[in-house]
Design brief:
By secondary structure, the protein is mainly alpha-helical. Helix content is 76%, strand content 0%. It is built from five helices and no strands. Helix 1 runs antiparallel to helix 3, helix 3 packs antiparallel against helix 4 and helix 4 packs antiparallel against helix 5.
């Protein structure tokens, strides 16, 4: 049996997790605003393609919704890597988490313009995710050896 000691610096990891939940909430609020502006009723996730091609507000809604949905799709992986990587490298993991969060904000801002290619501006966030993959692997290695 292995005893895990959590360093006090793990607090940075927890704070980063909290910040990420605020970011996801912020993106959801942006979707709500775009939904209202485009007059897309619930429960519809997206405007129809034919509508969004004719109406810029509906296109913006679709792009804003997609940015949020993409973030939610990867969110469980992010949290898993953040909290497991933080066991062995809390400061590096927290910093990598902040890079991912900032990347997602820039990604969503670019995508929400209605020009999908502008989402690429947030690609730097993947550097944070790759770092978290490394720190999680380090935690696994340390526990097994």
């Amino acid at each position: 049996m292995v005893a895990i000691t959590i360093a006090s610096e793990y607090g940075y990891v927890i704070a980063t997790g909290i910040a990420s939940s605020l970011m996801v909430t912020y993106l959801g609020i942006k979707v709500g605003g775009a939904r209202k502006a485009a007059q897309i009723p619930y429960p519809y996730m997206y405007a129809e393609k034919s509508e969004s091609e004719k109406d810029h507000k509906k296109n913006v809604f679709n792009c804003t919704q997609r940015a949020h949905q993409n973030t939610l799709e990867g969110y469980p992986m992010f949290l898993t890597l953040l909290f497991t990587g933080g066991i062995s490298a809390p400061v590096v993991s927290a910093a990598a988490g902040v890079v991912w969060i900032l990347g997602k904000i820039v990604y969503a801002q670019g995508y929400s313009t209605g020009v999908p290619s502008k989402r690429q501006r947030g690609s730097f966030g993947y550097l944070g995710l790759l770092t978290l993959l490394y720190t999680s692997g380090l935690s696994a290695y340390n526990l097994l050896n």
